Amino acid sequence: MSDHLDRVRALCQMMISANPGDHFHALGLWIKRVEHARVWAELPYSEGIIGNPETGVVHSGPVTTLLDSCCGMAAVAALDELTLCPTMDLRMDYMRPAKPGLPVLAEAEAYRVSSSVIFCRGRAYQEGVSEPIAHCVANFIRMDAQVAGVMSARLDPLLASATTCLAPPANPPKQPGQISSLPSLRDAIFVIQQQQQPELLLETLPYAQLLGMKAFYQEGELVLHLPPSKANIGNPTLPALHGGAIAGFMEMSAAVHLLMTMESVRIPRVVDFSIDYVRAGRLEDTYVSCSVVRQGSKLVNVAITAWQQDRQNPIATARAHFLVD
């Protein structure tokens, strides 16, 4: 067992350190501890993960990436063979916003392993596990023995020189300066809404800038665009986008959609987010469209679809609830 866990630790550290500039580096995310079927990780506070520049509060997308990564490695640590486990689906429940200036910590466990699926759950927190920021449940595909054997054989040479000593990325992301209140942000959002210029809105949101998001209108419909970027890679062997980057892109797209179609000038706060990964997101242009399923006095339910070359063949679908004014 210890040999397998050492290989898992080496895999974790290789993913953190072997591909500078990928999504792990962009966020500064790292795995702190690995045990059988359990993993602990950390997301340091940095400029790029800020979702609301008025308050400096962390966007929910990086928290989703943190828990997706933590659960994914817990799934790997629950097996006897070393193989990667693609995310099938993930649900996030957000209890409270992450406080500015503090790292976000996470712990996850694989609580059941079947012949085809690995069931995981996790939580993110800052000052204590009794006050979680978010809970998640996630399911991962368990590769069949033949595929797992091939993948293990491919990973072994890569891990030959990898260290089992877990450590954060060598070059951490930029820390923000002092966060001050920006009362003009709401005025700016109002003007952007009136002029229907979503690109200007994206320029005000640090996390949208970290992802590299763009926006345009197509036949009157707002479409969000994620150009291919190394900073969003999760699997360098394909290469493929990190599942957390896709989820964060979709969450942010939904918030932008609401800001551009509603009268509220306050950034919507996500309550829950559920995503199904239909196929791997390759390193190519990715697009998202959103539609409001139901709007109440406080809550809005949004359907979100992400695709690449063919809109009729999405790479992921999601639903989210947002609190709005």
Describe this structure in words.
Helix content is 30%, strand content 33%. The protein is α+β, with helices and mostly antiparallel strands and 325 residues long. The strands form three sheets. It has a twelve-stranded antiparallel sheet with strand order 1-2-6-7-8-5-13-16-15-14-10-9. It has eight helices and 16 strands. The N and C termini lie far apart (52 Å).
How do the strands and helices of this protein lay out in sequence?
Blueprint: H1 2-17, H2 23-27, E1 30-35, E2 38-43, E3 50-52, E4 57-58, H3 60-77, E5 87-94, E6 104-113, E7 117-125, E8 132-141, H4 145-159, H5 184-195, H6 198-203, H7 206-211, E9 214-218, E10 221-226, E11 233-235, E12 240-241, H8 243-261, E13 269-277, E14 286-295, E15 299-307, E16 316-323
Helix pairs in contact: 3-8
